[in-house]
């Protein structure tokens, strides 16, 4: 089973992405619809996890909720809550703060990147779906944004580079200690003449 590790910035970027549909509706259509319902649900879930599970808010590095499997419910998950109503209010305020800040950022991006939004919308009208690679290509061709590696990939690539550097260093050290057998015998016999 693979466990993914996300930074606070990466989670906020996910929320911004999820809220960009609603931001686009407001900005370009002056209207909102039910189309963003699932995105809003997912964004809220991430923000709540940031506050209650990951300690990524001003409430500090505390875990207020954690997921637990219930034997009686099969693989359904329950949230275990260990906090008062007063703390619940603070949690709700922190979740709202994260959502509001990310929504503001989504609105700024949607407003600034009108050309990119139009290009993506037109491509979706003709193709209906786009792959990650197609989206990345359109973004790089039509905006100032460059697709960056995720922090996890950066860490993994840095680790690979360090391992490769260490391997090359050891290879060099081994070359320095390698010697030609005939040269060694000649050297040894000159330094230590053998008497027969």
Q: Could you tell me the number of beta strands? A: 2
End-to-end C-alpha gap: 70 Å
Global geometry:
flat
Helix content: 55-70%
Largest sheet: 2 strands, antiparallel
Q: What is the mean pLDDT?
A: 79
Structural class: mainly alpha
**What is Rg?**
29 Å
What do these coordinates show?
There is one protein chain. The chain has 196 residues and is mainly α. Strands 1-2 form a two-stranded antiparallel sheet. The mean pLDDT is 79.
Describe this structure in a few short sentences.
The chain is mainly alpha-helical and 196 residues long. It contains 7 helices and 2 strands, in the order ααββααααα.
Secondary structure elements and pairings:
Layout lengths: L7 H22 L7 H16 L12 E5 L7 E5 L3 H28 L1 H14 L4 H11 L8 H27 L3 H11 L5
Antiparallel strand pairs: 1-2
List the main descriptive attributes of the protein structure presented here.
196 residues; mainly alpha; two-stranded antiparallel sheet; 7 helices
């Amino acid at each position: 089973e693979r466990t993914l590790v996300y930074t606070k910035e990466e989670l906020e970027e996910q929320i911004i992405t999820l809220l960009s549909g609603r931001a686009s509706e407001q900005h370009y259509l002056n209207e909102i619809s039910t189309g963003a319902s699932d995105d809003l649900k997912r964004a809220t879930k991430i923000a709540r996890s940031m506050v209650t599970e990951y300690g990524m808010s001003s409430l500090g590095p505390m875990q207020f909720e954690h997921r637990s499997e219930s034997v009686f419910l099969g693989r359904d998950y329950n949230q275990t809550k260990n906090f008062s109503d007063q703390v619940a209010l603070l949690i709700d305020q922190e979740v709202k703060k994260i959502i509001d800040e990310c929504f503001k950022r989504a609105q700024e991006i949607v407003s600034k990147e009108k050309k990119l939004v139009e290009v993506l919308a037109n491509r979706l009208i003709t193709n209906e779906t786009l792959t990650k690679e197609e989206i990345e290509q359109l973004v790089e061709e039509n905006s100032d944004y460059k697709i960056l590696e995720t922090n996890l990939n950066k860490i993994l690539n840095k680790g690979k580079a360090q391992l490769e550097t260490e391997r090359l260093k050891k290879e060099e050290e081994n070359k320095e200690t390698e010697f030609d057998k005939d040269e060694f015998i000649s050297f040894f016999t000159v330094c230590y003449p053998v008497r027969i």
